[in-house]
Design brief:
Elements: H1 24-34, E1 42-47, H2 53-58, H3 60-64, E2 68-74, H4 83-100, H5 117-132, E3 137-143, H6 146-154, H7 161-171, E4 175-182, E5 196-201, H8 207-213, H9 220-227, H10 231-243, H11 247-268, H12 271-286, H13 294-302, H14 310-322, E6 326-329, E7 332-335, H15 338-347, H16 358-385
Parallel strand pairs: 1-4, 1-5, 2-3, 3-4
Antiparallel strand pairs: 6-7
Helix pairs in contact: 4-5, 8-9, 10-11, 12-13, 13-14
């Protein structure tokens, strides 16, 4: 017998809705932004990959009800090759959303293929505001806004794109904008000014949020310890729990389906952070109950060819904690997710951290060449000191006469 499993087993499921839990603080902050008439900038949701930024935007209309019309815009699926294409796609997405909510669109102009700013700002948007009535706000929900940044940097969109959007927010009280951006691109938000105002960072789910997300009867404490509250891992755990109540088998299945993500995370982080994680995983292998701080990591690395001082180690630990790869307990630092800790124990090795630098490679090549040259000189010297067969006189045997 087959049944529908609503949970997402893979991180690459694309824009597929799934059970949702938590984020109440984020919704409260966004609600405050929407209700403050003094705020005329965009609300930005920042988070690393698979933290639930898209899922958060999907919940907008369900959470805020009739007073807001949220238009979800997946920028990955929007042509950003020119401003005309971008504005036309945005307009079509707005019309589609209004049609789904059964608003009357008789006064909304037909979307033109190569839209322009004057048409969008002075004809299209005013008609949309009229269709949804003055007491409602149109909220554009732009997912993966780093793609807009890239389009502007390439010159596909005008350099003043973000200024144009900011002017629209200041001019039209019925318009609001919320966007998501990958944490790796957070520094690039400076190029979006003056558009972005408040910034909210999504983090891992709490144990209580995990409990609300999991199937009935699931052990939230065990799942939270294994996943660290990472939404993608919790979804995968829930997916397998529906198929089998055996926690051990479920954990093995989740680990098998997550190893490529752990490796991708490992490759994304800087060298010093990988060194710190390698030291931590080795120390935990030797003594799972010990407290691990910067001094212990320092002592372990001193015995390798890649020591770090405590300043560099502390900086790496803070960054890993900020990324939620590590968590700090009363006994010291440990990986936030038990499954990630298992992967580190099996895969975190110094040879996977440090590759020979060009200078180091040339030094090795130089040593090898010098040794070969020395061997050649020795061979020549030995050859020259041996008697030459050309100078050897034949032996003459005198035979006496009888």
């Amino acid at each position: 017998m087959t049944f529908d499993n609503p949970y997402r087993p893979a991180a690459d499921d694309g824009y597929v809705p799934a059970p949702f839990s938590g984020r109440q603080q984020a919704f409260t902050r966004l609600y405050g932004y929407l209700n403050d008439v003094e705020r005329v900038q965009a609300f930005a949701i920042v988070g690393r990959q698979q933290i639930g930024k898209t899922a958060f935007l999907w919940q907008f209309n369900a959470v805020y009800g009739d007073n807001y019309v949220g238009v979800f815009v997946p920028l990955e699926a929007v042509p950003l090759r020119s401003e005309g294409l971008w504005l036309a796609a945005l307009s079509r997405q707005i019309v589609t959303t209004l049609a789904q909510r059964e608003y009357t669109l008789s006064r909304v102009p037909e979307v033109i293929d190569d839209a322009n700013r004057a048409w969008f700002a002075d004809e299209f948007l005013p008609a949309v505001y009229h269709a949804i009535r003055p007491h409602r706000r149109l909220v554009l929900l732009l997912d993966n806004a780093q793609l807009l940044i890239d389009a502007v940097a390439r010159g596909d969109l005008p350099q003043d794109t973000f200024l144009f959007l900011s002017d629209l927010l200041q001019r039209d009280a019925q318009l609001a904008l919320a966007l998501t951006i990958d944490a790796e691109r957070e520094i690039d938000m400076a190029t979006m000014q003056p558009l972005v105002g408040e910034v909210y960072r999504l983090t891992n789910l709490t144990q209580e949020e995990c409990a609300a997300l999991l199937p009935e009867g699931a052990n939230a404490e065990v799942v939270h310890k294994a996943t660290g509250g990472q939404p993608a891992l919790v979804q995968r755990f829930a997916h397998h729990l529906l198929r089998s109540a055996n926690v051990k088998a479920t954990s093995a299945a989740v680990y098998a389906g997550s190893q490529h993500e752990f490796r991708a995370e490992w490759l994304r982080i800087p060298r010093n952070e990988r060194l710190a994680l390698t030291a931590i995983s080795s120390l935990l292998y030797d003594d799972p109950l010990q407290g691990i701080e910067a001094d212990a990591i320092n002592k372990w690395l001193v015995e390798t060819d890649y020591p770090l001082d405590n300043t560099a180690i502390n900086a790496a630990l803070r960054s890993l904690e900020y990324r939620e790869i590590l968590t700090h307990t009363p006994t010291g630092y440990v990986p936030a997710a038990g499954l990630m800790q298992r992967w580190l124990l099996e895969n975190a090795r110094l040879e996977s951290v440090v590759q020979p630098t060009p200078r180091r490679r040339w030094l090795i090549i130089g040593v090898v060449v010098a040794l070969l040259f020395a061997l050649l000189l020795i061979y020549i010297a030995l050859s020259s000191s041996a008697p030459s067969s050309a100078n050897i006189q034949p032996t003459v045997t005198l035979v006496g006469t009888p």
